[in-house]
Amino acid sequence: MADSEFMTIVEQSVHELLVWVGFGTLVGLTAKAIMPGRDPGGALATMMMGIAGSVIGCGLVMFFVDGTRVSPISTIGFCAATAGAFLLLFFYRLLAGSFFVEAETSENWLHRLRRRRRRYAMLRDT
């Protein structure tokens, strides 16, 4: 293989990597904007969630719709990728326990309520 062919392959690979990183970041940010509440992770987690959501969303569309080839960098691909990232974020929150709170004893609940009231009173007085 000649040097010029190798450099062309490296350039194309770096270009693909940068496209996936940029696209994954946009998809991850869009999914986090749609999902209400606090979101886990920082910039790297958002990018990885967007890339994984792209693979999952576009893969699901191609699996359920026969003969369809979805490019992630298209309107349908962006919608499918955002839906995939949204599903990842939803299942993460579901499994992490952010949607459901276990039953608490009345003493523990009362203690937390009193502590919260004191904190709000302190904030109000300042």
From TrEMBL:
<keyword id="KW-1133">Transmembrane helix</keyword>
<feature type="transmembrane region" description="Helical">
    <location>
        <begin position="71"/>
        <end position="92"/>
    </location>
</feature>
<protein>
    <recommendedName>
        <fullName>Transglycosylase associated protein</fullName>
    </recommendedName>
</protein>
<keyword id="KW-0812">Transmembrane</keyword>
<keyword id="KW-1003">Cell membrane</keyword>
<keyword id="KW-0472">Membrane</keyword>
<dbReference type="GO" id="GO:0005886">
    <property type="term" value="C:plasma membrane"/>
</dbReference>
<dbReference type="InterPro" id="IPR007341">
    <property type="entry name" value="Transgly_assoc"/>
</dbReference>
<comment type="similarity">
    <text>Belongs to the UPF0410 family.</text>
</comment>
<feature type="transmembrane region" description="Helical">
    <location>
        <begin position="42"/>
        <end position="65"/>
    </location>
</feature>
